[in-house]
Amino acid sequence: MGFLEVAKKRCSVRSFLPREVEREKLLQVLEAARVAPSAVNLQPWQIVVVQDTQLKLELYEAYPRDWFAKAPIVLVLCVDHAVSWKRHDGKDYGDVDAAIAADHITLAAADLGLGTCWIGAFDETKCRKALNLPPNMEPVVMLPMGYPAKTDSPDRHQIRRKSLEEIVRWQ
Length: 171
Ligand SMILES: Cc1cc2nc3c(=O)[nH]c(=O)nc-3n(C[C@H](O)[C@H](O)[C@H](O)COP(=O)(O)O)c2cc1C
Prior knowledge:
Distance between the termini: 33 Å
Bound molecules: flavin mononucleotide
């Protein structure tokens, strides 16, 4: 698949088959995150791979949606604020770095026929508690991942995205 094809194939999947994800595929997805760029190449992230049923139940407390509980894997991207780059005005680029790594993951997963969904609306305190994270580690995004039970229509970007005219300013 060409890049644009992969980018258009990726969509938020909120329904998963009860099918295990092969370890080889999981490792490929994680490798895509490993090679992501980051400010000053500090790579201030950790990716927590949650497959354990009990731990997934604890994460469900942080994002109580039935479909989320059915994902075979949840990847939690955490940023280490003790490591992330701070600009001269204090802006912390850790979230940006984590978001880039997360996007690599979602695209690599789509390329391999896997589905993911960005989850930002979770309870941070409950997520932290479930994963026993130290204060410097912030969970930025949770990515449930598995084989999709259904797929979105291929022309959905024509309908659900702004046009280039709306988002690009040529100068
Ligand atoms: C930063 C971010 C946070 C998001 N948080 C959630 C979330 O908490 N729950 C959810 O169901 N979808 C969440 N989404 C998914 C968006 O709703 C989705 O990407 C958007 O509607 C476009 O649809 P698509 O991903 O299928 O192209 C999030 C997406 C992003 C990028």
